[in-house]
């Protein structure tokens, strides 16, 4: 594989199992996991200024502003690529503006976006999983808000990747191992 010159993206609605699958993909293929949600949760835990800022949005089920999110993720992406490693972006980009900023930076860096994996899960299943998981931002109203934000802000970005022929949809309503197998099968042709 062309180390450092490719990037992969993993997207999906809230509670689609992105994080779990991202870890597995990285273990299987040696990619470096870059999760925007993890970056924010870490900043919150550390009590940094960024953490305080991000927490307000996350607790409300809103997206953290594009500028802040993109700056953090693009810095990390660049660092990983410079080490000749392949980043897997988990949960970024989540808006058309983030997708645009990413596309511009990739062009500058000469990195090619190989594939956008999209884990597809129904709303009913998302509510069921959120109730089981009980994370702080998983209250029912917050989940409803996150789903609405997802539809309004993230689906247009997903659609644009579809139009560009980059999207591979994965059935996320299977056992974890079956989802992993479907992803690995889909990626085989692209890595
Ligand atoms: P996640 O763990 O991916 O579900 O992310 C948790 C929360 O972090 C989201 O509900 C958003 O509030 C925020 N977040 C994560 N990724 C992004 C992003 N790309 N843009 C804006 N906000 C984000």
Summarize the structure.
With 191 residues, the protein is α/β, with parallel strands linked by helices. The chain is 59% helix and 15% strand. Adenosine monophosphate (AMP) binds at residues 14, 36-37, 40, 57-58, 63-64, 69, 91-94, 98, 146.
What order do the helices and strands come in, and which of them pair?
Elements: E1 6-11, H1 18-29, E2 32-35, H2 36-46, H3 49-59, H4 66-82, E3 87-90, H5 96-109, E4 112-120, H6 123-133, H7 140-163, E5 167-171, H8 176-188
Parallel strand pairs: 1-3, 1-4, 2-3, 4-5
Helix pairs in contact: 1-8, 2-3, 4-5, 6-7
The protein binds adenosine monophosphate.
Residues 14, 36-37, 40, 57-58, 63-64, 69, 91-94, 98, 146 line the site of adenosine monophosphate (AMP).
Key descriptive features of the protein:
single chain, 191 residues, 5-stranded parallel beta sheet, 8 helices
Tell me, briefly, the overall form.
globular
Strand order, biggest sheet? 2-3-1-4-5
CA-atom Rg in angstroms: 16 Å
Question: Cofactors and ligands present?
Answer: adenosine monophosphate
Mean pLDDT, rounded to whole units? 94
Largest sheet: 5 strands, parallel
Strand content: 5-15%
Please bin the fraction of helical residues. Answer: 55-70%
Structure description:
The chain is 59% helix and 15% strand. The protein is built from eight helices and five strands, in the order βαβαααβαβααβα. The protein has helices spanning 18-29, 36-46, 49-59, 66-82, 96-109, 123-133, 140-163, 176-188, and strands at residues 6-11, 32-35, 87-90, 112-120, 167-171. It has a five-stranded parallel β-sheet, sandwiched between helices. The longest helix has 24 residues, at 140-163. The model has no long low-confidence stretch (mean pLDDT 94). The site of adenosine monophosphate (AMP) has 15 residues, from α2 and α3.
């Amino acid at each position: 594989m062309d180390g450092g010159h490719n990037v992969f993206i993993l997207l999906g609605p809230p509670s689609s199992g992105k994080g779990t699958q991202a870890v597995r993909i990285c273990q299987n293929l040696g990619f470096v996991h870059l999760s925007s949600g993890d970056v924010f949760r870490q900043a919150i835990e550390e009590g940094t200024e960024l953490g305080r800022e991000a927490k307000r949005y996350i607790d409300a089920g809103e997206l953290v502003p594009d500028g802040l999110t993109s700056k953090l993720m693009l810095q990390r992406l660049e660092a990983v690529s410079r080490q000749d490693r392949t980043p897997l972006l988990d949960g970024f980009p989540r808006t058309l503006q983030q997708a645009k900023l990413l596309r511009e930076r990739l062009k500058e860096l000469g990195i090619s976006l190989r594939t956008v994996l999209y884990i597809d899960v129904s709303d009913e299943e998302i509510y069921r999983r959120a109730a089981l998981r009980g994370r702080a931002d998983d209250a029912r109203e917050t989940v409803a808000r996150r789903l609405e934000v997802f539809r309004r802000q993230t689906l247009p970005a997903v659609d644009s990747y579809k139009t560009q022929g980059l999207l591979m949809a994965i059935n996320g309503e299977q056992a974890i191992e079956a989802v992993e197998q479907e992803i690995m099968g889909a990626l085989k042709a692209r890595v």
